[in-house]
Amino acid sequence: MHDAPILSQVTLGYSPVIDRQRAVIATRLTIFPERPDAAPDAAALLAALAEVWPAPTEAPELQLRLRPLEPAAVKARVAAAALPPVSLNLAGERLLDAVMAAHPGSHFMLEVPAFMAGDRNHVATLQALQAAGSMLLIKGRPTADLPPALLQCFSHAIVDADGGGALAALSSVQSGVRTMAAVDTAFQRGAIAALGWPLDDPVVKPAGRASVPQDVQVVLELINGVDREDPAARLEGVLKKDPTLAFRLLRYLNSPAFGLSVEVNSFGHALMMLGYARLKRWLALLLASSAKDANAKPVMFAAVRRGLLMEELVRSNGDAEMRGEMFICGVFSLLDKLLKQPFADLFNSVPVPERVRQALLDESGPFMPYLDLVRAIEQESLFDIRECSEKLFMGPGEVNRALLAALAAARALD
To answer: Nearest 5°: phi and psi at 330?
Structure first.
């Protein structure tokens, strides 16, 4: 990630935008200025973000697989599918003014608080942005009705989880979801998307003796085999039990995020190229992405990014072993929710390094402060991000560069 000075002048947090199929269709990036009274370099900020979300070279075709639906549902599906990949939530009026003046482009959504939307001084700017192709979202309900000419500048309204702030003339994106029940409620109310992390649902073990899916069994067997450093031929024999799993693993290994100079064409080749320790991290990713439940999609989205972010946070001061364990810690931090088993039970069958076990089972050890920081970034909590960063003696620029690098790597894996 480019070392842009602007990244030391802001604090970043992020959350997912979720569609009706529970797929994550966009990322919301919340940006806090370190000094709300300072005039930020908006062009530099947008350039740094464009390294993760570059402008498309041509207009993307909208490809939808629509089943027979009610007209309103069809309209909502089309509206959700047409969202750009990232929404900018700029937590500062001067910062938002500067970004609007810099014309962020059509590949960024721009969130505008209702009080600014109702300010006559912003009418010309909002109309110019809309005419240039920017997608504008209004947050909350204005104190007075907006003129039709101004209201049409906005594509959607962001409403709170309590249902407040909705504008009848606009489709809505419901913010603040923290459980799958809240996601369900959002779509029952007619939202085109839900915004937030539905990670607060408790881990509920299935009634009776739950059968472990075949692909999960295979990955668990592989992880244990790699931990024992079994011969490549034996591990390849395990992987042949599930050809689809083999395809997914090779897809990960050959992705741009992995950065290999040659194409890996077999498990044995991967083991020869990487060794047991580096291969273990990608098996961890494979295990975390094995859940078949549609509701698991946002959780898998979070798990991948947690692993990549925790690895990036120690890239400059950790050795290869620590970086690998940090990746596994982040990916496995949501494994209890994905596999519906508490960590105490999971770790009886999944071998994990001691520092990972300490963080996930006991909420202690050297990795725990990093996991706390990642969670604060997900919650877009400025105070908690600053507090966690200070405990790790990390400045905002270092943390922000790690976050953007992780998000870029995750996009390469998607």
So the answer is: -65, -45
Please report, for the chain, how many H helices and E strands are present, in that order: 19, 8
The tokens describing 279, both together, are 């291969």
pTM summary value: 0.89
Find out whether 363 and 356 touch, Cβ atoms under 8 Å: no
What is the phi/psi pair of residue 156, to 5°?
Answer: -145, 160
Distance (Å, rounded) from C-alpha 261 to C-alpha 253?
11
User: Distances from the Cα of 109 to the Cαs of 11, 105, 157, in angstroms?
Assistant: 19, 8, 12
Q: What are phi and psi of 155, to 5 degrees?
A: -85, -40
Residue with tokens 């450093």: 229
Q: How many CA atoms lie within 13 A of 412 on its CB side?
A: 17
- Name the nearest CA neighbour of 302 among 176, 196, 159: 196
Q: Which amino acid makes up residue 48?
A: A
Measured in whole angstroms, how far is the alpha carbon of residue 249 from the centre of its chain? Answer: 21
Residue 88 has pLDDT above 70, yes or no: yes
Set out the domains of the chain in order of their start, with CATH numbers.
5-196 (3.20.20.450), 214-413 (1.10.3210.10)
CA end-to-end span of the chain: 19
Interval 313-354: pLDDT, tens: 999 887 888 999 999 999 999 999 998 889 999 998 888 999
- Residues 224-245 pLDDT 10s: 999 999 998 898 888 888 888 8
